[in-house]
Specification:
Layout lengths: L1 H12 L6 E6 L4 H9 L1 H5 L3 E6 L2 H10 L5 E5 L7 H10 L6 E7 L3 H9 L4 E5 L3 H45 L14 E8 L7 E7 L4 E9 L3 H19 L5 H15 L6 E9 L4 E7 L5 E3 L5 E3 L19 E4 L5 E5 L1 H4 L10 H10 L6 H16 L8 E8 L1
Parallel strand pairs: 1-2, 1-3, 3-4, 4-5
Antiparallel strand pairs: 6-15, 7-8, 8-9, 9-10, 10-13, 11-12, 11-14, 14-15
Length: 404
């Protein structure tokens, strides 16, 4: 079914006014008149264009000058260069859309078989049955159109692949990548983050930015869906939250404003889970709003860990005019707050077993004294070791903030 669909699509993609170029190679001069007379209607309509050579060497010269031949109709037994040698030379051109139909005497089955084994598309026997040859040419044209369609789609896919590579670089570039991000506060604050997309581009993001001398905004988020749509929604969400937060809006106010804009512009019911916090560098207090995101872990300096309460608020971008609420958290000296997306806990091995919160908690209990980058590296290593050779199914994003 797919084959015939592609043939139909190819007839739409390849304009009808482009003739099929056929090169007839034969040392018998009367064949030229025979072909032009039989296919005169197709020639007049511009469907076929015939050219003629009288031996393999002459044909090869024409093929090197004109790269757009579609079908070679070649005799096997010719002077100077026979058809089998010509077929070998054509194969060296590595053009899968160029089809060779070989012609020889009915009793010359050995050479015909060799030609077919060497890659000829089909064959005809002399004296040529022109009705049968017409069917063979039409069959070759279908294959040519199919191949050209595949080549065109391959070119388009390569172009898309190149665009996605650039998009991935752009996406990574808009995320903070310089650590420590606030060197003037390095003695008070440690921050590290990481985002590994499951596809070329991802829907997760993290961010942090200075609001004023004493306050740092930080955020982690996970957009619904995958691929390019999620990446675009991610960029919009990140820009809105940063632009609103950097003006000094409170955590709940920032999420309420961002949600209203996202909900009004959302397409295909897309939404984003967000944890947005404002950290007071001097006091260690965190004011945050959680829009349906995974509750972070508080890794305390005394070696214990606890998970923040589940969010009472909805995801962002789903319903406008929703009022988000503020929550507060106190970081003591040596405490670390670890934020993550569900790509961590829902990572699966080849048997589809999930990494889970239990494994994450066990690991974090061993890392309470580590710095933020070490914690993130350990989590990523542990998840990778767990999934093994299984394909990454979701973006994996982590952000850690430690009060020194």
């Amino acid at each position: 079914m797919l084959f015939f669909y592609l043939i139909f699509a190819s007839k739409l993609l390849i304009p009808n006014y482009m003739p099929v170029k056929i090169l007839s190679v034969d040392d018998e001069m009367d064949l030229e008149l025979l072909l032009t007379q039989y296919f005169r209607r197709q020639i007049r309509k511009g469907e076929y264009e015939f050219k003629f050579a009288h031996n393999g060497l002459e044909a090869l010269t024409m093929l090197l000058k004109e790269k757009d031949f579609d079908i070679i109709l070649s005799d096997i037994n010719m002077p100077e260069m026979d058809g089998l040698t010509l077929l070998t030379k054509i194969n060296e051109m590595q053009n899968p859309a160029l089809k060779c139909i070989m012609v020889s005497a009915y009793g010359d089955m050995g050479n015909i078989r060799q030609a077919m084994n060497n890659g000829a598309f089909d064959f005809a026997t002399k004296p040529i049955d022109l009705d049968d040859l017409s069917v063979t040419i039409e069959k070759a044209i279908e294959h040519i159109r199919y191949i050209k369609t595949m080549q065109q789609e391959h070119t388009q896919l390569e172009s898309i692949k190149g665009d996605l590579a650039v998009a991935r670089e752009i996406q990574q570039a808009i995320l903070p990548r310089i650590f420590p991000p606030f060197p003037e506060n390095a003695h008070q604050l440690d921050i590290a983050a990481s985002m590994n997309a499951a596809k070329d581009v991802g829907g997760d993001f993290y961010d942090f930015f200075r609001i004023d001398e004493d306050h740092i905004g930080f955020v982690i988020a996970d957009v619904s869906g995958k691929g390019v749509p999620a990446a675009i929604f991610m960029a919009v969400s990140r820009t809105l939250i940063r632009a609103t937060g950097i003006r000094g809006a409170g955590a709940a106010e920032c999420m309420t404003y961002s949600n209203n804009l996202l909900a009004k512009e959302a397409v295909n019911s897309m939404f984003v889970t967000v944890f947005y916090g404002i950290y007071n560098i001097q006091t260690g207090e965190v004011t945050y709003a959680n829009a349906g995101h995974n509750p972070p872990y508080l890794m305390k300096a005394n070696g214990t860990i606890e998970q923040l309460p589940l969010s009472k608020d909805i995801v962002a971008g789903a319903i406008d005019e929703y009022e988000f609420s503020d929550e507060k958290l106190q970081l003591e000296h040596g405490d670390t707050l670890l934020l993550y997306t569900d790509g961590v806990t829902e990572a699966t091995d080849k048997d589809y077993a999930e990494y889970g919160e239990g494994r994450l908690e066990t690991l974090l209990k061993q890392q309470t004294k580590a710095d933020c980058q070490q914690i993130i590296d350990k989590v990523k290593e542990d998840v990778k070791a767990f999934v093994g050779d299984a394909e990454q199914s979701d973006d994996i994003t982590l952000l850690a903030l430690k009060r020194k």
